[in-house]
Amino acid sequence: MKTRTRTRVLAGSVAAGALFATLIGAAPAPAAPAAPARPAAVHGGASVLYAYSPRDDIRFTVEAVAAPFTRPFPGKEGKDGSPTDARGKVTVYHYSPEYQVTGTSEAEVDCLVTGGRTATVTAVVTKSTVGDVGRRIGISVQDGVRGEPDRLGFSWGVANIDPPNLDPDGSVAKPSAGTCMAPAPFTEVTKGGFKVVPAPLPPLPKA
């Protein structure tokens, strides 16, 4: 009987405490923090059909993830970088059966911005068999839906030339692309594909 009485008293005390908290407007327990939103990203690899070299084997891989404010500008070390800073890698493979030549390049991603199913990525070439080390290249990707093919554009294909300035060999100069600058995705993916994970631009750091 004593045990049952104690149980009833304890239950009554808990109920009274809950009612008292309700009457005085006690604040509810803090909610668990929301899971962080996924960062903007592009993942995948594909072969593309380039209109001006339809027989060539041209392949791209893009692995890019947003990393806002992680790349301070030169001379500004310790300070904020850009909201579109990113990390990752781009590789390019191009085989020309006409000339029996293969070109390959690897580049370190420095910028990424997304808008719906489309993303632009820039990367600085770190390894190359075609002499582009140190040049920034621009890549655009469109993630196809409802049966549409994925698409990709690249800065040296139809854009980003500088006619007034000639290279030493007399060819038209192709300067580095600006960060996150790339043409529209003008080629069609024929094999493989890309996944674009869109995300809004992050808020600027507080001063």
Write the layout of secondary structure elements.
Layout: H1 2-23, E1 41-49, E2 57-66, E3 86-96, E4 101-115, E5 118-128, E6 136-142, E7 151-154, H2 155-158, E8 162-166, E9 172-173, E10 187-197
Antiparallel strand pairs: 1-2, 1-10, 2-3, 3-4, 4-5, 5-6, 6-7, 7-10, 8-9
The largest sheet is: 8 strands, antiparallel, barrel
Radius of gyration: 27 Å
DSSP E strands, number:
10
User: Secondary-structure element sequence?
Assistant: HEEEEEEEHEEE
| Overall mean pLDDT | 83
Termini distance? 67 Å
The main sheet orders its strands as 1-2-3-4-5-6-7-10
**Helicity range of the residues?**
10-25%
DSSP strand content: 35-45%
| Structural class based on helices, strands and sheet pairing | mainly beta
Low-confidence stretches: 1-27
Q: What labels describe this entry?
A:
207 residues; mainly beta; eight-stranded antiparallel barrel; two-stranded antiparallel sheet; 2 helices; globular; disordered N terminus
In short:
The protein has helices at residues 2-23, 155-158, and strands at residues 41-49, 57-66, 86-96, 101-115, 118-128, 136-142, 151-154, 162-166, 172-173, 187-197.
